[in-house]
Amino acid sequence: MNKAVPEDQMGGPNPVEMSATAENEEITKMRQSFSEGKADNTTLMTLVMYDLQRRDAESARPYFAELKKRAPDSAFVSRMGAQFDR
């Protein structure tokens, strides 16, 4: 027979904290990949969107600039250009 355990009595890390930590680790790996010159276009788009979601356009700027060099005619660059053309 299963009994529900009250949330305040549950042990272990908060699932939200765990997901944020995993996300931060993945973003850190992507940033490192960019620093090493190994980031693909999908990684660059992910980093741009992640930073813009955090309202940090300045952090997104180098990833967008690199993506713009690689794929200047892409739909993503066209749509996101207004965020950086200031």
Provide an overview of this structure.
This protein has one domain. It has four helices and no strands. The longest helix is centred in the first third of the chain and has 21 residues. Helix 1 packs across helix 2, helix 2 packs antiparallel against helix 3 and helix 3 packs antiparallel against helix 4. By secondary structure, the protein is mainly alpha-helical. The mean pLDDT is 84. The termini are far apart.
Mean pLDDT: 84
User: Can you count the helices?
Assistant: 4
- Helical content class: 55-70%
Q: What spatial form do the alpha-carbon principal axes imply?
A: globular
Integer-rounded radius of gyration: 18 Å
The largest β sheet comes out as:
none
User: What structural category arises from helix and sheet content?
Assistant: mainly alpha
Q: Roughly what fraction of the amino acids lie in strands? A: under 5%
Q: Report how far apart the termini are.
A: 62 Å
Question: How many distinct beta strands?
Answer: 0
Overall number of domains = 1
Helix/strand order = HHHH
pLDDT under 50 segments (min length 5)?
Answer: none
